Amino acid sequence: MDRLAKNSVLDRDGYLTLIRNRDSVREYAAGLATEIKRQHYGDRVFIRGLIEFTNNCRNNCYYCGIRSGNGCVERYRLSPQDILCCADSGYELGFRTFVLQGGEDAAYTDDALVDIISEIRRKHPDCAITLSVGERSRESYRRLKEAGADRYLLRHETVNPLHYKKLHPADMSHANRLKCLYTLKELGYQTGAGFMVGSPGQTDEDLADEMLFLKELDPQMVGIGPFIPHKDTPFCDEKPGSAELTVFLLSLIRLTLPRVLLPATTALGTIDPAGREKGILAGANVLMPNLSPASVRNKYLLYDNKLCTGEEAAQCIECLKSRIAGTGFKIVTERGDYNGKI
Ligand code: 5AD
Ligand code: FES
Hints:
By secondary structure, the protein is of the alpha/beta class.
């Protein structure tokens, strides 16, 4: 653990040993991780307003509640005006980063997204715009960046190509997903990768490999959360990932990538009511409350029991603030850019 804190990297066996023996090192790891987080970001926790603007998706990932094959979903799309409205009310609430997240929905062409991004950029020039709209072409990513997008989230889901095949139908390409991540970085996006913890078939060795991959990719953001089964997916009977392991991995990620922007995710808060606080106390420094209109919030259900009201809702930022204050860290409203070299 000290070796990791000093060099920000271990070999595969090093990570594997820590993961296997986490019960005896988790507290120590969390202490080191919060110390390193403090060195780079002080006591600040950044907030991002999440706008889930479409639950239409052309893909059919076995784990995901909004997969194309799920006929039980009531599909929706937010209009550009709806999205703008969300951003405006988020701005009033203090948000300075908007995350536009959606399924891979062909209705949002490059032209359509360019218009939406440019309009948010024009109205809120002091805000960061983050996209999370899946795999697109290099040219598309380039245009969206030119229109004003600053950051891009694209979880790779697993670094292991065989494991990827277990989680996705044959028409989805692991190689293309990784290529997209490298393209996004090259184009100058603050780029976020990530994976689910405890997804079906994942091994401790896979997790050790995740750490090595993250070190190599060196993304500015990493999103991880426990896998949670969704009742209308092929993985409905699989067992969920654990909050405990997720929290430990947050510490390992902080120690491996000291400056990374690392959210305590909604999935972590869903599986454990104290998950987000535990995440902050283990090295996370970002929270992403939901800014989507209340009328669609219960339709963007990637997994069962997803938190989408109460403290998960951006409107309840005050409750979130007081909960986080209990950790000794403090929610701030600044953009919260990556503070290292991109
Ligand atoms: N449980 C947990 N996380 C999920 N995601 C999708 N489905 C689930 C699930 N059942 C995650 C994926 C995706 C992100 C937007 O949500 O990692 O990249
Ligand atoms: Fe939409 Fe996985 S189901 S990308």
